[in-house]
Amino acid sequence: MHSAIVLADAIGSQLYHWIFSPLFLQFLVTLLFAILFPITSAAIINYLERKVMAWMQDRKGPLHVGPHGSLQLLADIGKMFTKEDVHAAQTDKAIFLLAPSAFIAPVIASFAVLPFSPFLGLPGTALATGIIYLVAMSSLDVIGVVMAGWGSNNKYSLIGGLRAAAQMISYELPLVLALVGVVMLTSALAGSPGYAGNASIGTISLKEIMTFQNTWKDTGIGILDFIFKGFTPWAWFILVQPLMLLIYYVCGLAETNRAPFDLPEAESELVAGFLTEYSGLRWAMFFLGEYGNMTIVSAITTSLFLGGWSGPGVGFLTASGMAFGWQILGNILGVIYFVTKVYLLCVIFIWIRSTLPRLRADQLMQFAWLMLIPATLGNILLTGLLYLAVSGLGLSNLVFLIVTGAINWILLIGFIYLVGRATVATTRRAQAPAIRARARQAALAHVAQLAKAPGVEVKPR
């Protein structure tokens, strides 16, 4: 009996210390943030989308209904909550009802490991394999889309679900390959002067990749250390791998089914694709998941290419030894910088939707398999060869970064030119039958007009 009491006291004491420990507090705050932020982010991005598209397309409601057009958003949210949840009688009920949850669950799980600030991140091993975890979560939401298409018992929904599956599988490959270039950079830089880690051992942790984009050393000059400690934009990987940033972002557009890759929801062909039979809150869950995926793609881009939460004051205020109040202020600044970069990238999502027309199915697949995958594989090979050449000549990592960045920017310009040429060529090829048919009709009309003219005899060939 005495041993049981002692054991219970020990377990209770350990539980008490664990619950009130900084690690548990970090876990609790991060978990609440991961649950609440997607909902808040969806509302903000939806408002941004309405405003940006209203400015571009001169829409009246989002600009003038309520203060700064905000009541248009509130009206739509109210409509979504009050709309009846209707589903057809012949659906596969279990699959149909579970599909929205299967779609949104990986999105919520992804938010748990996104590092919004030095403090906001789950303690443990999830962030040590951050890239792999996020890529795995992003590949799971296709299950919800296929379930929605199959469970709806609707030919348009089924076609939309199958299109989404083919599209997501195709663009998942270049998406992952685009990130390999960044991991190779960390492997080349690890252990060298000014960089953390062991020599030749890279990292797939988002936090550690952010540290590779920070090369500032304390100078003792207060104002310079405050601004640039943790904020060195000249070391961001966007300058070294701009083509991979573009390819990753394009693949993110396809993964989130956003225009011009919105073939699974093509209303001109499939009514609403896999969403055709959904209404009310179940439709809203797919809607929420799409905006959540936009945020995740933008957050990964921010972390890997734009320095993450880095900005003036963050590294200085969150350094060890600073007072608790200053560390809180530094983390708040980190969240502000991170979220600002994320939303600026989300605005580009909206800008593209307002600008580009939808691709054809053949263009979509050709773009992935014939352009994006060869480009990413070529970048991996080129980065490895450049590192071997530079290190073989005994040159520094700075030379490697400059040479790799210069060649990558040239390749970026060439890639954009090539995409433009390919787009024109495929469009002309697709339009050729219609152009020929129109030319034949014009020729026949001209011959008929000549035949009717007095004194003109048209002899058949």
Report on this model:
This protein is mainly α and 461 residues long. It has one domain (2-358). It contains 16 helices and no strands. The protein has helices at 2-19, 22-57, 61-64, 70-82, 93-111, 130-151, 155-189, 206-212, 222-228, 242-255, 267-270, 280-305, 314-317, 324-355, 361-392, 397-452. The longest helix has 56 residues, at 397-452.
Summarize the structure.
The protein has 461 residues and is mainly alpha-helical. Helix 4 packs across helix 12 (280-305), helix 5 packs antiparallel against helix 6 and helix 15 (361-392) runs antiparallel to helix 16. The protein has 16 helices and no strands.
Write the layout of secondary structure elements.
Blueprint: H1 2-19, H2 22-57, H3 61-64, H4 70-82, H5 93-111, H6 130-151, H7 155-189, H8 206-212, H9 222-228, H10 242-255, H11 267-270, H12 280-305, H13 314-317, H14 324-355, H15 361-392, H16 397-452
Helix pairs in contact: 2-5, 2-12, 2-14, 4-12, 5-6, 5-12, 6-7, 7-10, 7-15, 10-12, 12-14, 15-16
